[in-house]
Amino acid sequence: MTDDISLSIADHLTPGDLQRIEALLPQLSRTAGFDSERMLALIDSPNADLFLARESGRILGMATLTTAPLVSGWHATIEDVVVVEDARGRGIARLLLEAIIDETGRRGIPTLDLTSRPSRESALRLYESVGFVRRDTNVLRFAPRSD
């Protein structure tokens, strides 16, 4: 089912790519706003890679790998995994995850993290099926109040 899907790490984005990503973003987050400058900065960042899944040039899914050197070693995280609604169930998210896992292995990064809301049960099953293990931890977020 995924034979005609091509995966790549984006090194540039065309205006058409930016339009497809903008259309895909609401399926990832209801609150995130699209910013083409931010997308171009992501592509230029040495610590982030945007993985794209395409079929006949059309972006069907994406995921971001971020890496950072820390005192304790290299840290890698998967962010923003999303597949266009009409292409879900075809194994595209799995292909993206496997490509990122392979890339972190190639880079010698020993661990890879991701987070997901507990309500995203099918996503959690997918993550576990490719080898992710739930950890007994809490994710905390600081958001300054705008008074």
Automatic annotation (TrEMBL):
Residues 8-147 form the N-acetyltransferase domain. Keywords: Acyltransferase, Transferase. It holds the Pfam family Acetyltransf_1. The keyword Transferase applies. Transmembrane segments: none annotated. InterPro entries: Acyl_CoA_acyltransferase, Bact_Acetyltransf, GNAT_dom. The keyword Lyase does not apply. PANTHER family: AMINOALKYLPHOSPHONATE N-ACETYLTRANSFERASE-RELATED (PTHR43877:SF2), AMINOALKYLPHOSPHONATE N-ACETYLTRANSFERASE-RELATED-RELATED (PTHR43877). This is Ribosomal protein S18 acetylase RimI-like enzyme.
